Amino acid sequence: MSNEYIFSSESVTEGHPDKVCDLIADTVLDACLEQDKKSHVACEVLCKEGNVILAGEITTGASLDYEALVRKAIRHIGYTDPKEAFNADTVKITNLITKQSPEINQGVDQATSLSRDQGAGDQGIMFGYATNETLELMPLPILLAHKLARGLADDRKSRAVRWLRPDGKTQVSVEYVDGKPTRVMDVVVSTQHSADTNRETTCDYVKTALIPKVLGRWNDPSIKLHVNPTGSFVLGGPSADCGVTGRKIIVDTYGGFARHGGGAFSGKDPSKVDRSAAYFCRYVARQLVEAGLANRAEIQVAYAIGEAQPVSIKVDTFGTGDEKKAVTFVKKFDFRPAAIIDKLDLLRPIYKTTTNYGHFGKAGLSWEK
């Protein structure tokens, strides 16, 4: 990158149609793990108007009431208005879930794996990233975008702002000089609102309440604000737009600041390295930066389905540290799926807490320690 540039990242609220689907999928996953830690879950969800479709593959000893789980998740988000097509009480739920393929299971199960170790649930590449530009070791643009989106949800759920509705998106553009963030240039906030709320009210709330509270020291009068740029945002959520699991993979990770292997997280148990190995790569990248070996670092790992040992591990410090020492440091970690699951204690019903406002940079998660 050049010495001076502007980088932008976006986030979405929990009422965004894709995030509705992600939360339903992680709710199902948590319910499985609560009863059976050996559950193999790959839950996919589609929401549109008054319909929720569950699909994917689940093998578990758990006894689940899928309909109750779906309605509980939708109610938690806040879609309870009976006048809307998409609401917790009246949505039609279609269940197309089947069991996991036995051929995949035999490679994941330690007892039947050719390597006699828990193999990766699929082939693929995963990335983890950390930077010391913030206390959370996250890039500033995505960190602030998440905080704005969460701020919208907090003000809505606390009833501090009664006209806010669940759907919304945020975007933050940050100026960088010599690799360091210097100021926030632009902020975009698009928030769903009640029909009797005008744009002036929305703009005033964002400018005088949300931005100062959330941005803190990064707030500045020179920031260019873009609030509900179309003029109105009454129709939102799955009532107006289709949602699908796994469509917010950049929002879920580093806001585009690091590379992405393409695998989504939500609805997948930790035998799926798309999720567990991405979490572990973040954990290792954090350790590397915290050890002072680099100002920022990206870890890539690759797997073959059914095999425990990674195909490759790559470390990039972007010229901000000692590359050889960084590689030596990273290769001390055990990247086998079973070791990752044990190290991060991943067979717990923790996944609903990861779904929204990023899977990284939040306190209380084992890969963020």
List the topology elements.
Elements: E1 4-12, H1 17-35, E2 40-48, E3 51-59, H2 66-77, E4 92-95, H3 102-108, E5 124-131, H4 140-157, E6 164-177, E7 180-193, H5 199-215, E8 224-227, E9 243-244, H6 249-252, H7 273-290, E10 296-303, E11 312-316, H8 323-330, H9 337-344
Parallel strand pairs: 3-4, 7-8
Antiparallel strand pairs: 1-6, 2-3, 2-9, 5-10, 6-7, 10-11
What do these coordinates show?
With 369 residues, the chain is an alpha+beta fold. It is built from nine helices and eleven strands. It has helices spanning 17-35, 66-77, 102-108, 140-157, 199-215, 249-252, 273-290, 323-330, 337-344; strands at 4-12, 40-48, 51-59, 92-95, 124-131, 164-177, 180-193, 224-227, 243-244, 296-303, 312-316. The strands form three sheets. Strands 1-6-7-8 form a four-stranded mixed sheet. Strands 4-3-2-9 form a four-stranded mixed sheet, covered by helices on one side. A three-stranded antiparallel sheet has the order 5-10-11. The two termini are 30 Å apart.
Keywords for this entry:
GMP Synthetase, Chain A, domain 3; alpha+beta; 11 strands; 369 residues; four-stranded mixed beta sheet; 9 helices
Rounded to the nearest angstrom, the distance between the terminal CA atoms is 30 Å
The percentage helix is 25-40%
CATH fold-level topology of one domain: GMP Synthetase, Chain A, domain 3
The CATH top-level class label of one domain: Alpha Beta
Q: How does the overall form come out from the CA principal axes?
A: flat
CATH hierarchy: architecture of one domain: 2-Layer Sandwich
The computed structural class is alpha+beta
Range of strand content: 15-25%
Summed over residues and divided by their number, the pLDDT gives a mean of 95
Number of helices: 9
Rounded to the nearest angstrom, the radius of gyration is 21 Å
The count of β-strands is 11
Largest sheet: 4 strands, mixed
Sheet with most strands: strand arrangement = 1-6-7-8
**Spans of 5+ residues with little confidence (pLDDT < 50)?**
none
| Sequence of secondary-structure elements | EHEEHEHEHEEHEEHHEEHH
